[in-house]
Amino acid sequence: MPSMDEATEASPLIPVGDADRQEPVYSHANDSEWTREGMQTAGLAAIFILLFSVADVFRYFSTLQLLELGVCHEQYTAANPDVPKQAGENTPGDFCGSPGVQQYVADLRGYLVALEALVGLFLTLPYGLLVNRFGERLVAGLSLLGVSLACAWILLVSFSKSALPIWTAVLAPLFQVIGGGSPVLYSVLYSIAAKHIPDSSRSLCYSFFSGAQAVTEIGAVNIAAFFLEKKLEYMPLVLTFPVCIICLLTLFFMRPKKVAKTARGCESGNSDEERKLELGSLLKGAHAVVEICQNPNVLILLAIFPITKLIDTIYAVMLQYIPRRFGLSFATSSRLSSIPSLESFLVLVAIIPLMKHIAETKFHIAFRKVDIYIVRYGFLVMSFSCLIMASSTTLIAFMLGLSAFSFGSGARPVLQSILTDMVDRDKIAVLYTLMAVGDALVSATGSLIIHHSFAIAIGWENLLWLGLPFFIGAACYFYAFVGAGLVRHTALSRKSNLDSDSN
């Protein structure tokens, strides 16, 4: 952390501080008790996350449908040059479902998600450094601006089919260079919230965050599906702009917590020294990353944490898989995707809290041990569920696999809580930056591999191979299950880390 006489809201995602390893000075007042300010800030962060989730769903479903319609229109007019452009707007459904069109759509969707993830991958660290100078709220506001400009570009390409080829819509994530996009935004918001939540309550709070996010997405998905059925594919994208404005207003009322400084930082008050530290902030940030990764248990969990992000790619390919495999419309597939959101809500808000309560009160099992079991077997459930979805020949069997898949949705928030509890409070922002980088890396590579594998499978005659993306997902989740099994629950706390360091 930077040496300052007075802490400000400019808590860095990558800290600036003394290169020597110093033991942080902590105030443990908030480790076990809620404060009024903490509840207010955590509540505002939760509201922001829910609102942005609505905007994410709107822009996601609208973009996918506009891409498919744009590709269909473009290839239809190219194959039928004598057809007037106005008539080309209403292309036959059989043509849009042809393998050539669907393969191109799958590739474009993969490129779009991968480019967005790469933007986040390369900009998470630089924007983490900017947080130190400009503050968390300003960086989050810039992220909202970048997302809004990306939506505006997709609308422009969709309304300018004759002037701009549809593939240029894939360039929309480049506008998220402003603010770093969703990875930076979520990293900042969860970092703000984490500093206000007591350690023993964090996994439950993250579960409630994710559960509320899931039930919010149910409503957002059905609203988006309603517009798609009414042939108003652009409306969800348009509605993203007012939702982002409300997010900005919510951000204005947040008060990020003042974090503790290191012992040496408390003694230093020289502004010239602070400027020198800022100039060397990248090296200091790298040093902080090395300190975190010196714990092998943290390193293992950081290696498997990005696998939880693969759930987004699985859901994305599912929206194209269901129409192709079972002959349903995109709007109907969108509505079906709200079913796992409802199940995730029940898992995160009801089942996991009940399991934790019974295990901790009746059987007196340590909450960290309960958490690692939830993560470990959540990955195993998702692995077997992917195998069921991949081999399903009927829609009912596929939905049963999808329902089982949702029961592993608690792995991500609980694992995030475990990792948060394993590092010092002044390194939480660094940890979340590493998580965001890992998420972006897996989103980029996973999206390219899974969407392209689906595009290849479309060209094969055997329909069973359409489930190839789910086979890949099953292998990834099994790898995460094995990785989680290598970590013992006794290593899941800051105290154990300090003990190991002293030894």
UniProtKB/TrEMBL annotation:
It is a multi-pass membrane protein. The keyword Isomerase does not apply. Keywords: Membrane, Transmembrane, Transmembrane helix. CDD domains: MFS. The chain crosses the membrane at residues 42-61, 111-131, 138-160, 166-192, 204-228, 234-254, 298-318, 338-358, 370-390, 396-415, 427-451, 463-487. Residues 1-22 are annotated as: Disordered. One of its GO terms (cellular component) is membrane. Its main location: membrane. GO terms for molecular function: transmembrane transporter activity. It is found in: Membrane. InterPro entries: MFS, MFS_trans_sf. This is Uncharacterized protein. It comes from Clonostachys solani.
